[in-house]
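Here is the promised in-class demo. Please do not try to memorize the tokens; focus on the logic of going from shape to residues.
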């Protein structure tokens, strides 16, 4: 299962957000640095109204959403790359996740301590980026030293890595994340083996006050973060209110809806965050549906039909024959598989078919 790590400076709302998205109270949230040391983990369901509609269409007895794992990692501070604030331990936890969600504080509250004394989310982003870049520079230097002798001896892999390092070092030296370096497809594949912290896809979560969620564009800090991450890190920011999410944890769906409506908000920010993180990881969804069960299955962008079948069971991939496939929109519009077949919207796809997000599939296999 793929994992997204929640990071940020101390006291920005990471643990509160983690508790909200995982609907638990596992992570301690307190008004002092390093109240989280060992990472907490939780399974997160991906909200997808398409699944609910398919389940209603098929009158399914059970509905099973897509899931992935969130990891709450302790707050980083300036100097983390050299061990400050137990930084080396925390950086190791970041290295173990597939994507990063960086929570940045975009609310003012004199009662909640900020490690730098005042709220400045762009500065906070730069502090963490600098620490991750410095840790990567150290890792790259060690890799270069290890490769040099092998490259001189004619090792093609070592030479290719050092050629990549020659492009990477000045980029990191300039304080830039590895993910923003322009590389060829082969170089990108090679870079994956480096396991660099700044090569991980990153999403930013702007944590705003309760009263600001309905109109985040009115928050100057949110505007600054959106502009900065777009121009400097080639990524996006979503807006959440960790306090609101925390308040929603113990409410029923009906109570939560009424509460959000009272705030002028249609949907919880966590839903948007989870979907954005899911897509950030390069994940997509296909569905199976029937009277017994409707289920969302997770695949990677570009997966072929046999690989998608293998997500259900390895026998499905090994004995794959074909996939009976229709698009979600067509099935909902037409109302049944039978009508989709009559309209020519139910296709038989073979081994080379690239599964699309929202495909509704049934596999034929023989083992």
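The designed amino acids, position by position:
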């Amino acid at each position: 299962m793929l994992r997204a790590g929640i990071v940020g400076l101390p006291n920005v709302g990471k643990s509160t957000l983690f508790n909200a998205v995982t609907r638990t109270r596992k992570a301690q949230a307190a008004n002092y640095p390093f109240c989280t040391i060992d990472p907490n983990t939780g399974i997160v369901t991906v909200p997808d109204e398409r699944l609910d509609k398919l389940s209603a269409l098929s009158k399914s007895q059970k509905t099973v959403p897509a899931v992935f794992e969130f990891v709450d990692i302790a707050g980083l501070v300036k100097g983390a790359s050299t061990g400050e604030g137990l930084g080396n331990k925390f950086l190791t936890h970041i290295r173990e996740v597939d994507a990063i969600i960086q929570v940045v504080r975009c609310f003012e509250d004199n009662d909640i301590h900020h490690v730098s004394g005042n709220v400045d989310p762009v500065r906070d982003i730069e502090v963490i980026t600098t620490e991750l870049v410095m840790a990567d520079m150290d890792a790259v230097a060690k890799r270069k030293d290890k490769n040099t002798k092998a490259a001189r001896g004619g090792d093609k892999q070592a030479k290719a890595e050092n050629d990549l390092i020659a492009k990477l070092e000045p980029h990191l030296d300039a304080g830039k994340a590895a993910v923003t370096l322009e590389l060829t497809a082969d170089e990108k594949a090679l870079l994956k083996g480096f396991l660099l912290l700044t090569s991980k896809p990153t999403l930013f979560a702007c944590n705003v006050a309760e009263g600001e969620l309905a109109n985040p564009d009115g928050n100057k800090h949110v505007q600054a973060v959106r502009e900065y991450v777009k121009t400097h890190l080639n990524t996006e920011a979503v807006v959440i209110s960790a306090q609101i999410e925390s308040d929603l944890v113990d409410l029923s769906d009906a109570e939560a809806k009424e509460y959000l409506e009272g705030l002028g908000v249609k949907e919880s920010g966590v839903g948007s965050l989870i979907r954005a993180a899911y897509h950030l990881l390069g994940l997509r969804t296909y569905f199976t549906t029937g009277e017994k069960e409707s289920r969302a299955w997770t695949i990677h962008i570009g997966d072929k039909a046999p690989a998608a079948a293998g997500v259900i069971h390895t026998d499905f991939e090994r004995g794959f024959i074909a996939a009976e496939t229709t698009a979600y929109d067509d099935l909902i519009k037409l109302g049944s598989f039978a009508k989709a077949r009559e309209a020519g919207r139910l296709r038989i796809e073979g081994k080379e078919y690239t599964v699309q997000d929202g495909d509704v599939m049934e596999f034929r296999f023989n083992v």
